[in-house]
């Protein structure tokens, strides 16, 4: 149950950042296909889908980024 609360909090933060962002430029998420970027993309898309259409004033998109995998140490 605690994980659900964290996800809701994160989605609310994403929605707040989006609605209150004074910059008209679109949000673009670099997507590598890894776990981190997949999670981020899903969270952002789910959060933005919860906004009313009139609040979704920016275009958004994901861009595939080809790169080498990193090995955390």
Description:
By secondary structure, this protein is an alpha+beta fold. The chain has one domain (2-64). Helix content is 47%, strand content 14%. The chain contains 2 helices and 2 strands; from the N terminus they run αβαβ. The protein has helices at 2-20, 35-49, and strands spanning 27-31, 60-64. A two-stranded parallel ribbon has the order 1-2. Helix 1 (2-20) crosses helix 2. The protein is flat and about 30 Å long. The chain starts with a helix and ends in a 9-residue tail after the last strand.
Could you list some keywords that capture this structure?
73 residues, alpha+beta, two-stranded parallel sheet, flat
Strands, total number: 2
Total of helices: 2
The whole-angstrom Rg is: 14 Å
Number of domains: 1
Strand content: 5-15%
Task: Give me the secondary-structure topology.
Blueprint: H1 2-20, E1 27-31, H2 35-49, E2 60-64
Parallel strand pairs: 1-2
Helix pairs in contact: 1-2
Task: Provide a compact summary of the structure.
Helices cover 47% and strands 14% of the residues.
């Amino acid at each position: 149950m605690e994980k659900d609360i964290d996800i809701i909090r994160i989605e609310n933060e994403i929605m707040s950042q989006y609605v209150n962002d004074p910059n008209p430029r679109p949000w673009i998420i670099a997507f590598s296909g890894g776990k981190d970027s997949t999670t981020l993309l899903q969270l952002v898309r789910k959060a933005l889908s919860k906004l009313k259409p009139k609040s979704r004033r920016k275009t958004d998109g994901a861009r595939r980024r080809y790169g080498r995998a990193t090995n955390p140490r």
